[in-house]
Amino acid sequence: MTNTHLIQANGVNKVFPNGCHALKNVSLNINRGEVVVIIGPSGSGKSTFLRTLNQLESISAGDITIDGVDLTDKHTNINKVREEVGMVFQSFNLFPHKTALGNVMLAPVKVRRQAKAEAEQDARDLLYRVGLHDRIDSYPSRLSGGQQQRVAIARSLAMKPKVLLFDEPTSALDPEMVGEVLDVMKSLASDGMTMVVVTHEMGFAREVADRVVFMEDGELVFEETPERFFDSSHPRLQRFLGQVL
After folding, report:
1. Packing angle of the helix pair 100-110, 145-157 (nearest 10 deg)
2. What backbone phi and psi angles, to 5 degrees, belong to 82?
3. What are the CA-CA distances from residue 182 to residues 25, 70, 123, 199, 203 (Å)?
4. Predicted pLDDT of residue 244
5. Contacts of 106 by beta carbon, 8 Å cutoff, 6+ apart
6. Which Gene Ontology terms cover its molecular function (predicted)?
7. Which residues are 124's β-sheet partners?
8. Angle at CA of residue 149, ends 207 and 173, nearest 5°
9. Is the CATH number of domain 1-84+165-244 3.30.365.10?
10. Tens digit of each residue's pLDDT (9 = 90 or more) over 220-241
11. 150: Cβ contacts below 8 Å, ≥ 6 apart
12. Which of 4, 89, 105, 238 is most buried, taking the most CB atoms under 10 A from its CB?
């Protein structure tokens, strides 16, 4: 029987060299096809935890397993793991000298050694999927922030990842562009993509998440389904929601 947990994080701690204890015994299992949204105040450890899931941030204690592979095992080829774990950042990190198509094609050709013609067709399909079929030949400088972020999502999808991590994907966008990125994310969720999303977008959490997780001071304080989460009387959660809603 296959394990339904795609991601298993157990007792994860992160202490930075300056002594900051950023993650304190965080444990979280994420199932295949599940959308988990992580919310909490700035400095609560949300983004640090997300970055441990592809070892952009090493951990001080605990263990993380993705699809049966132990990320903390020194024999694990972490670059192979990262091919399966897509990440979308606040900043779009597109190559300015490449078109939207060129940006999306690059990793499958370079990393997965995919044939160029096949990679190009896949990239065109993905740009169509994120609503950018008319911007395929545009360079990043000619795209809005929302369009660049949608290219970045298509680029992550091009590697056919098992899970997508989103680190506040809309926080650098002008308000009118947030919706177009969230719409793409909603469509990925409805297609069954496993997603872990750090965001301040409470409407997205309410509408799309299977579970919402609240972090504060490096701890995973509370997790529930959206219905129960936003109606919870948990005092630390209520204090936070009172500030953001």
Report:
1. 20
2. -65, -25
3. 31, 31, 20, 11, 10
4. 86
5. 95, 98, 155
6. ABC-type amino acid transporter activity; ATP binding; ATP hydrolysis activity
7. none
8. 75
9. no
10. 999 999 999 999 999 999 999 9
11. 130, 131, 132, 180, 181, 184
12. 105
**pLDDT score, position 173:** 94
Q: What SS3 string covers the chain?
A: CCCCEEEEEEEEEEECCCCCEEEEEEEEEEECCCEEEEECCCCCCHHHHHHHCCCCCCCCEEEEEECCEECCCCCCCHHHHHHHEEEECCCCCCCCCCCHHHHHHHHHHHCCCCCHHHHHHHHHHHHHHCCCHHHCCCCHHHCCHHHHHHHHHHHHHCCCCCEEEEECCCCCCCHHHHHHHHHHHHHHHHCCCEEEEECCCHHHHHHHCCEEEEEECCEEEEEECHHHHHCCCCHHHHHHHHHHC
Contact 244, 236 (CB under 8 A): no
Quote the tokens at residue 140: 């990043």
Mean pLDDT confidence for 49-67: 96
